[in-house]
Amino acid sequence: MSKKSVIVAALCMAAGMVTGCTSYSEDSSAGTEGTSDAAVEASSEKSVNSAAYGITIDAADEASTVASTAASTGKSGGAGTTASTEASSESSSDSASDKKSADDKSADKKNVKDKKDSDGKSKTKKASKNGIPEVPEVKDGVTKITDRGVEAYFEWAPAEGGDRYEIICEGKPRGSSNYTKLEEMYTNMPNYSYGAGLNYDVRIKVRAYNGNVQDGLCSEWSEYVEGNTYEDSLATPVVKDGVKRGNAGGTEVYFAWEAVKEADHYEVVVEHKKSDKSEYEIKEVTYTNAPNYTYSAQGDYDVRITVKAQTNAWINGKKKVFSSQASSYAKGKTY
User: Fold this and answer.
1) How far is the C-alpha of 123 from the C-alpha of 288, rounded, in Å?
2) Residue 190 sits in a domain of what CATH number?
3) What range does the domain containing 184 cover?
4) Does 98 reside within a domain?
């Protein structure tokens, strides 16, 4: 084997260790995939020149070093490195572009919100620029039964720019048509109760103040809102017609209704008659804490009931019962 063949074989073996090359022929110009032509030619030329001066093993070692360097350069530098760098740069550019797009969208949302605020469409009410408080929005009155009696209770959200309120209360006896002024007052609280007159229709209007009453700024008056101090202010029960049920002692009729808020108990007036009679008579007046009543009888009977919701209050140390209006008749029969 010629020195050139030995050198080339050594070169192939060295390159194969680095790049995976497995064969090389004397006529080949490069190894297998992974080693560049330029690296092989440079190594071959250097090895041949060395052989000309009688160097064999050293030339093979040197060729191996050259091939290893070329292979290493091919893996970590050159076109491969350039492509990787370009891909990394492109990825970074895309990420930066996505972030900028997200930032732009966020900025657009903020601009829309700021525009709404500047257009005055914000849900938060604000006082006018000259310091005048906003007009209170007063809710309709709620009738409450307390230990002080029956009250009409009103409330509103605190007015922006105001620190106190002026209230005018007007009223009339139930069934009357003309309101008269009952009282005028000032308060720091956003609520008001009237309970001086029983069975009254009541209405109020409110305005907000900023500063003292004499020289402070005030809002316009609110709209009138209404309430009452009716003794029978509890909601009237809505009673369903009775359902016939059999039992061991005869026949029963079951009545039920929706529970009334704030009711302590119910008064039930029961009337009945024989099926062949025309006039009802009172069977009993009873009280129950449950929103139902069961009528029992032997024989053929028609029955009807009315129900009142009731609650108790202690006024000046004395117990007083407040009732709703009586319900409409609910009817049933045992036959």
Assistant:
1) 48
2) 2.60.40.10
3) 142-228
4) no
Task: Tell me: do 154 and 200 sit in the same domain.
Answer: yes
Nearest Cα neighbor of 131 from 158, 157, 159, 155 is: 159
Q: Determine how many CB atoms are found less than 10 A away from the CB of residue 14.
A: 24
Tens-digit pLDDT profile for residues 18-57: 444 333 334 443 333 444 444 434 444 444 344 333 344 4
Could you tell me which residues come within 8 angstroms of residue 244 by beta carbon, excluding any fewer than 6 positions away?
Answer: 251, 252, 253, 332, 333, 334, 335
Q: What are phi and psi of 143, to 5 degrees?
A: -80, 125
Number of domains making up the chain: 3
316 found inside a domain: yes
Residues of the chain with pLDDT under 50: 8, 12, 15-89, 91-93, 95-96, 109-127
* Co-location of 319 and 252 in the same domain: yes
Please name the residue that has the structure tokens 């006896």.
Answer: 173
